[in-house]
Amino acid sequence: MFTGIVEELGKVKRIQRGSKSIVLVIEAAKVLEDVKLGDSIATNGVCLTVTSFTEKEFTVDVMPETMRHSSLGDLKVGSEVNLERALRLGDRLGGHLVSGHIDGLGTIKSKKREDNATVITIEAPKNILKYIIHKGSIAIDGVSLTVANLDESSFAISLIPHTSQVTLLGQKEIGAKVNLEVDMIGKYVERMLGSKEDKGNKKSDIDLDLLKDNGFLLA
Q1: How far apart are CA 107 and CA 121, in angstroms?
Q2: 189: helix, coil or strand?
Q3: Contact 59, 51 (CB under 8 A)
Q4: pLDDT of 138-186, one tens digit each?
Q5: How large a percentage of the chain has pLDDT more than 90?
Q6: Are 93 and 1 in contact (CB under 8 A)?
Q7: How many C-beta atoms lie closer than 10 Å to residue 93's C-beta?
Q8: 121-146 as b/e, with b when 16 or more CB fall inside 10 Å?
Q9: What is d(CA 203, CA 193) in angstroms, rounded to the nearest whole number?
């Protein structure tokens, strides 16, 4: 589990490509301070397991399922990546609860400056957009952000200068792919609402109208 607060930018040193998978060797510093074999490190928002490490780099395997649903396959030697170690009990939760399990890819549609902020609009598939709410949380390439605007095909987020400087999002160009992970609470709610009571149990009083009336969903 992660918070979506990026700790540092790493750099891809080597890539070993399989037919549907890759092995990444990533240069880093801060995330290696207390690393152990088997630790989880979010890499552009994807939870990956450390299989070996030195004082200056660590190695992770990226399996075919992860390749299909994330942008890690587009990485090249020299590419920078957002890195975050797994959350420890007792840590401050500065972002929101992020699993590191990517729901799919978005595409940067536009970028514009608004005073000290950079507003980025991202196109996303409908199966992802249905979980996004105005002022809700979303992880983009592993960065915890607040949804500033939303329509039927895209959503927008606003970056403060600090986030632009310490993560890759400020560097991304129009047309770039980004890893998206929606707030998991929405998926659990959908699952519970969609389950059918077929064993004589009392049907839940929670429905979509109740959630909308209480501000959990957009009308």
Answers
A1: 9
A2: helix
A3: yes
A4: 999 999 999 999 999 999 999 999 999 999 999 999 999 999 999 888 8
A5: 79
A6: no
A7: 12
A8: bbebeeebbebbbeebbbbbbbbbbe
A9: 10
Please count the residues of the chain. Answer: 219
DSSP state at residue 74: G
129 vs 211: which has the higher pLDDT: 129
Residue (of 151, 142, 149, 150) closest to 172 by Cα position: 142
Contact 174, 111 (CB under 8 A): yes
Residue closest to 124 by CA, chosen among 144, 109, 143, 102: 109
Which residue's structure tokens are 């200068």? 161
pLDDT tens for 23-37 read 999 999 999 999 999
Residue with token string 């959503």:
155
Q: Could you give all domains of the chain from N- to C-terminal order, each with its CATH number?
A: 8-85 (2.40.30.20), 104-193 (2.40.30.20)
Residue 98 is given by DSSP the state B
Are 147 and 135 spatial neighbours (Cβ–Cβ below 8 Å)?
yes
Q: Whose structure tokens read 């605007």?
A: 149
pLDDT of residue 201: 56
- Helix (H/G/I), strand (E/B), else coil: 157: strand
What is the spatial distance between Cα 89 and Cα 23, in angstroms, rounded to a whole number? 30
